[in-house]
Amino acid sequence: MEDGSCAHPVGLLREKSCNVSVHCRIAAKFDKQGGGMRHGQKKWVLAVFTALMILFISSLAFSGPPLKTGITFCTNGSSRISCPSPGQNFYGQDGCYQKGKTRSYTKLKADGIALPASATEADGWCMTRDNVTGLVWEVKTLANKDLTYTWVNANTYCRTLDHGGFSDWRLPTIQELSTLVDTGIADPGPTINVQYFPNTVFKYWSSSFDAYYDANYAWAVYFNVGLVWSDAVSLSNGRVRAVRAGQSDIFLDNGDGTVTDRVTGLMWQKDNLREGAKQEFTWLEALTACENLNLAGHTDWRLPNRNELQSLVDFSRSEPAIDTTVFPDSNYAYWSSSPLASGAVSAWKVNFSFGHVDTYGVSNGLWVRAVRTGESGSVASLAPIYNLLLLD
User: What residues does 209 pair with on adjacent strands?
Assistant: First the structure.
């Protein structure tokens, strides 16, 4: 309201509908302390608070359990083939293992009430819960699917969103947004499960800055092909999909040349894979080298799929975009085991200089870091922390 008061009570639960509205919050707290503040002061405090919250949320490293990429096929570098058996050429690629948690979603209506998979917007469906990561996502409609925003306005949209009976929405981090990409869907996509995420179009903003460019560029996911790329925050627009809740990760150096992610359960080769002086490998060579690796008493090493490899990216860093206290031997770009769905001559790679996720010809040489599957740890939600900062 014009006097700075709120039209409805301060809190996280709002009206029990899926209608989107802009609401005010936090300001009511100041009215309860010392007689209140002038409207201009409240606007200044809210602006500062918003900026700090954006930086705080963007800096968090998301690492839920890696999901299956969606790749169920194999290639030989020129065409699709039946997935090879152990010992055969091109064994070890994503389609051979299909590692990761199976994707699972639930449609929700207002207040988080579950709906059957057949539910439509007419049934009140307005949110989708990822049953693996625990994230709850805004569902876009035909009416709002083409709305685009600058990066600043994208944050404002999510922060002021009153949707589905909840008001703790935010712009997702790049790691969170990337969990929606289904790499098994070929161009022109969209590379997402359209049964649960309809009306998905092209580029969506994340809250994460590109550390190389500071606050001038932010990360986005291009769902037409599945690329993870950064764009200028002041020069381009993107679409928005708001999210609720979040997660963090913890690495453990095992002291034997391996590192365990205690959230994902994955065990990683600490240093780059090498064969004598050889440090760069074609995609086939990378698959074979990981399959033959014997490290720390384990022989079940493999080349990580795209989702697993991207879980190592720390988007708050640049050159390299990885925690070098945990992985000091880190280089430019690394192969994943995931081939490109729309062309067998390329496979997905992760650029650890900046964090980009894109494709590369399989005959080229890149660095390699092997992975093996361990036991998944617990996934801790940051929602209570976010809510405390928001309302305390």
Answer: 218
pLDDT tens track for 64-98? 678 999 999 999 999 999 999 999 999 999 999 99
The CA distances from residue 107 to 14, 120, 124, 125, 277, in Å, are: 19, 9, 10, 6, 52
Note whether 267 and 281 are same-domain residues: yes
Q: State the total domains in the chain.
A: 2
How far is Cα 336 from Cα 147, in angstroms, rounded to an integer? 34
Burial class (CB in 10 A: 0-12, 13-18, 19+), 82: exposed
Helix (H) or strand (E) holding 118: none
How far apart CA 283 and CA 286 sit, in angstroms, is: 5
The residues that bridge with 130 in the sheet, in sequence order, are 105
Span 272-293, pLDDT tens digits: 999 999 999 999 999 999 999 9
Query: What residue type is assigned to position 302 of the chain?
Result: R
Q: What is the CA radius of gyration of the chain?
A: 22
Residues 263 and 285 occupy one common structural domain = yes
| Higher per-residue pLDDT: 61 or 370 | 370
Cis-peptide into 384, omega within 30 deg: no
Residue 43 has pLDDT above 90, yes or no: no
Q: Where are the alpha helices (DSSP H) in 128-184?
A: 151-159, 174-178
Helix (H, G, I), strand (E, B) or coil at 274: coil
**Amino acid in the structure at residue 275:** E
Q: In what order do the strands lie in the sheet with 136-138?
A: 113-115, 105-109, 127-130, 136-138, 243-244
Q: What is d(CA 21, CA 16) in angstroms, rounded to the nearest whole number?
A: 12
pLDDT at 64: 64
Mark whether 6 and 146 lie in a shared domain.
Answer: yes
Q: For the residues of 21-41, what is the DSSP string, one character each?
A: EE---SHHHHHTSTT---HHH
Q: Which two tokens stand for residue 233?
A: 């925050």
d(CA 370, CA 267): 9
Backbone torsion region of residue 245, taken as left when φ is above 0, otherwise alpha when ψ lies between -120 and 50, otherwise beta = left
Instruction: Provide the residue range defining the domain that includes 173.
Output: 1-65+103-246+380-392
Report the C-alpha gap between 383 and 10 in whole angstroms: 17
pTM reported for the whole predicted model: 0.68
The residue-averaged pLDDT of 159-184 equals: 95
